[in-house]
Design goal:
By secondary structure, this protein is mainly alpha-helical. It contains 17 helices and no strands. Helix content is 74%, strand content 0%. It starts with a helix and ends with a helix. It comes from Populus alba (White poplar).
Length: 285
C-alpha cells in the first residue's frame, strides 16, 4: 500500500483517539495491520493509541498493543515506553514502571531512557530520600539533567518543605547555568509566601523582573497583594507611633505630619520623648 494511504489511516486513527472514540480507533488500527500497511514505530507513536488507552484507564489493552507491536516486528522506542511509564507512574504501578525501565536499559539504542523518562519517575516520588536513587540511575546511564528536571526537583523539595534541598538545588542551577527561568522564580516566590517569608518572596520577584522575565498572572497578583499589605502594615505601625507620641508626650500632630516619614527620621522623637519610649517606638517600627 502506498505511503500516502498509510498516513491517511494515521490521520483518521489520531482524530478518533483525540475525540475519545477508542473503539472505532482500535478497529482501524487493527485493520491497518491486516491490510499489510506495516507502520513503523514513529507512525504507531503518532497514532497515540497506547496513550489514549492509558488515559481512559484501559491499561491492559494498552499493554496488549505494546506487546503486539513487538510481535509484529514494530519495535518500540523511548517515546513508546515513555507513554506507558507516564501513566503507570500516575496510577502507582511502580513495579511495572521499573520493569519497563530495566527493559529499556537492556535494549539500549533508541530505547534508552531519557530525561523525560526520569522526569516521570521524579514526579511519582513521595519522599525526599527517594530522589537520590533516581538521580544516581540517571548518572549511571549518562542521562544529563536539563532545566525541566532541575525545576521539577525544586518544586518537589519546596512541596516537601526541605529548605536545605531547595537552596542546594537553586545553587546547582546557578552553577550549571540551567533553569533559573520564570518557572524557577515562580516556584521560589510561592514557596516563600506559603512559609510567611514575604520580604524574601518580594526580593525574588524583584530579581525576576530585573532580569526581564514576565511573571505569571497568578504570581503578579500575589506580589501586588503582598506589596499592598506591606504598605498598609507600615502605615498602621506609623499611626500607632503617632498615637503613642501624642498620648505620652503631647507632640502636636502638625509637627508629626511635617516630617516626610517618621520611620526614617527619629531626631524629633529623641528631642520629645525619653530613651525608653523611643526604643518602644523603634520596636513597633
Amino acid at each position: 500500500m502506498q505511503a500516502g494511504c498509510v498516513y491517511l489511516w494515521i490521520l483518521f486513527i489520531k482524530a478518533l483517539t483525540n475525540k475519545g472514540k477508542l473503539g472505532t480507533a482500535m478497529k482501524l488500527y487493527e485493520a491497518m495491520w491486516e491490510m499489510q500497511c506495516k507502520p513503523d514505530v514513529v507512525i504507531c507513536n503518532v497514532c497515540c493509541v497506547i496513550d489514549a488507552l492509558c488515559f481512559k484507564k484501559r491499561v491492559p489493552e494498552a499493554l496488549a498493543v505494546f506487546e503486539g507491536m513487538k510481535e509484529r516486528g514494530c519495535l518500540p522506542n523511548v517515546a513508546t515506553y515513555n507513554s506507558l511509564i507516564k501513566h503507570m507512574c500516575k496510577i502507582g504501578r511502580m513495579e511495572k514502571v521499573y520493569e519497563l525501565l530495566d527493559e529499556m536499559q537492556e535494549k539500549k539504542g533508541s530505547c534508552m531512557p531519557d530525561e523525560i523518562t526520569f522526569n516521570y519517575l521524579l514526579k511519582s516520588l513521595k519522599k525526599p530520600e527517594e530522589v537520590a536513587g533516581v538521580l544516581e540511575r540517571m548518572k549511571i546511564i549518562g542521562c544529563r539533567m536539563n532545566h525541566d528536571t532541575y525545576n521539577l526537583l525544586l518544586k518537589l523539595h519546596a512541596d516537601w518543605d526541605s529548605e536545605e534541598k531547595v537552596r542546594y538545588t537553586w545553587e546547582e542551577m546557578e552553577k550549571n547555568g540551567l533553569g533559573l527561568d520564570r518557572r524557577s522564580y515562580t516556584i521560589m516566590i510561592h514557596w516563600l509566601y506559603d512559609k510567611g517569608r514575604v520580604e524574601d518572596a518580594l526580593r525574588y520577584f524583584g530579581e525576576m523582573e530585573n532580569k526581564g522575565m514576565v511573571p505569571e498572572p497568578r504570581t503578579k497578583i500575589l506580589c501586588n497583594s503582598m506589596n499592598t499589605r506591606k504598605q498598609k502594615e507600615a502605615e498602621r505601625k506609623e499611626k500607632r507611633v503617632q498615637r503613642i507620641m501624642i498620648n505620652r508626650q503631647g507632640l502636636p500632630m502638625k509637627e508629626i505630619r511635617r516630617k516626610k516619614s517618621i520611620r526614617f527620621n527619629f531626631k524629633v522623637c529623641h528631642e520629645t520623648v525619653d530613651d525608653g519610649e523611643l526604643c518602644f517606638c523603634l520596636r513597633i517600627l
